[in-house]
Protein 1
Amino acid sequence: MNDHVSLRGEGPQISLLGTTGLVFEAPGAFDLGNQQRIWGMADALGSWAEVREAVPGMTNLTILFEQPPHDFRAFRDRLTSLWASGISKTVAGRTIDLPIVYGGTGGPHLLEVAELTGLSVDEVVSIHSAPVYTVYAVGSHAGYCYLGGLDPRLFVPRRAVPLLSIPAGSLSIAGAQTGVSASAGPSGWHTIGSAEVTFFDPARNPPSLLGPGDSIRFLPEKVVS
Amino acid sequence: MIEVLSNSALATIQDGGRHGYYRDGVSRSGAMDGVAVAVGNALLGNDRDAAGIEIPMLPFSVRFDTGLDIALTGADCAAHLDDVALQPDWAIRVHASQVLKLSAPKSGCRAYLCVGGGVDVPTVLGSRSTQLREGFGGHEGRMLQKGDRLAARRTESVLPEGGMGAMPVAALMPELGQGANVTVRVLPAAEYELFRPEAHDALWSGDWAVTPQSNRAGYRLAGPELQLITPIELRSHGVVPGVIQVPPGGQPIIQLADAATMGGYPKIGTVIEADLWRLAQARPGEKLNFQQVSYEDALAARHELDRCLASIEAMAMRVRAAAKGWSR
């Protein structure tokens, strides 16, 4: 019966997105080592005939089919073998500094996050701005960077009902993730601050400011509580 | 040129979609009803993915200031060229100063105006589609407004005198479900098994109303609450048009052409590619039913739709070739 998805267990999980593509989820931790294996796989998959695009996610990979494979099981086995080969890619990326106004009208959920985590607003800000975050993946909307490295003390669930729109430059967090919106749009995350930056320009090549392996450092410019 | 006479919101230029930039976070965009645009293009002898105008809010009208081949497909919106009624799924030569008026549709909710060679706007990142969120592609990266002037990429006519039409695709494709609801086929997705058994029953047997909070990015549905056995937080991963996400509130959202390329809400299923055109014509207030299919069924449906479009293209080509013979 359950052929659309491989069983949950020790190995990677592979599940279909209709006939458009599939999601490959790496087993194990949400860390840079696993993410580098995802980047390695994405590069290798670029030469597979069935693959239009292999798109890194957060320790997962989405394949968009050029042609959906007739034999999905065989395709799934080839993917699992590629993962098992241990292929990996390291990126010598660059780091940008991003001034942030935490809280206020640009960060309406800062207080809520403080309550959810049991921390003070100042603690949330200092914990959030401490790490240098690695860009794990670009996606959601054009130029948006998914960042790894959020301190577990700031892990909060996504909002129960997504908001219809948050502005460009919004700094938000959810689960083990944080990021800055590249353009206005809907969001299910908690918005805790704002920045002024252009992450995407279709006239630029490549159009995205940052790619997987680059890094962002958040500099608290102001905290409004 | 085509001059837009209506300030009717939400009309955009769309083609077969922007492919190859998912890793930059660029959503697919493209026509919501890709079949309607493909049929329009078939009648006009265009590439299947040539750019047309997607018109979701009617009435809408345009004036032509040159002779032009046009095709009207998608929702049947009682179109009139000056005072003459036009059939749905029909292509015809229009002349300078004629006005085309579309009225509120009897059924469906998106009409497509295709033109000879496709709408002439610059190709940006491989497509002429309007990328609404980021504001590029299409005509100045935005919805059309009154006074906008658009050119076609071909002005000479390829159509027979009096025009030509196609059978509605709905009549050529299998009829799904019964009654007034719109039925689409769904393949279970990664988190399907993590939902409660009641949620499975509700998914397959429930009536799912398309709410007014529905647009090119996605349809928010109202129906029974779909609950997980235990709450989970997923790592963000790729999402494609057709994916049915279920936020913790329990009311599903079907991701569509302008949806985010990545998301993290649990996915209970995916509306198959071959039925996205049916969704595109479901209007707010209408109800959806979901019919479970296997991957093999979904592949077969994809081939069936492709064969159907190919046969329309071949038929249209024969009619145009014959008409060319008559006029010699």
Protein 2
Amino acid sequence: MNNKLKVLRAMRSWSQAELADRLDVSRQAVNAIETGKYDPSLPLAFKLARLFAMPIEEIFDDGFEGPADDA
Amino acid sequence: MMVSKDRPMTRDPSPKGIGGAVGWPIAIALAAAMLAGIFAGYNQAAVENGGEPLPAWLGPLVGIGFCAIAGAFYLRAYGAVWRQRSPRKRRYWLALGVAALVGALIGVWSMADSDTPVAEVAMIADGPVSPGFAIGASLLWLLGLAVSMILYHRAIDDHEERAWLWASLAGWYSFVFPAPVWWMLHRADLAPPVDAMALFLLSLVVNAVIYLWMKFRR
């Protein structure tokens, strides 16, 4: 899953360690999310969304391009 | 020399990092073990030369005393480093510390209990040990592992939990695949008897490799 975490972090001039401290996770976790090797759990995704004040789907992109809502 | 009003006149102490906070307890424990070892060596030499050995409890007591004094200095110097960390990270390092302490205690006790050289003291060594050591080390292993695992699983983040779970699965498979094959080949006299500790060691190694790869790959 693609994400904008690296860009959002760079915009705030935070290091991976600083972001990890704000999320209370390890630096390796931040690196793994940024490089796409690990998709965070829903609670951690919500934590990221709150930290960056953005909806989850603006941070993460699952590549789905179908119709948004057929109903 | 001009001094900015915004800056304190005294020199800031250099910030202490996690390296020292983790490294010093290891150094203190090693130094304590060496101190106790010096007393044990002296006693052994005294007995061999027909002399009077010192009381057996003196070496461990000196080691514990050294740990207490050095530990007090350590807490004074590095207490702030731990207080700055989140409760989750403190629990994490505490879990690792408990596991390391249990391992060190069993290792040192094992060396003291048997006359085997240090290089031969290993989990898969099959030399005789005293009943006291066997019971004590087993209790230390069971209780120490339980306490450190409870602390560890309460402390790890999602990413590490995932690494741990995959590593555990790989470790399990490294037991499940070879064990029945070895057992069947042995029944047909095509292989030596199944060595449970060799399989245990294999699963530990596989577990460690997968865990380290999943947690630290870049």
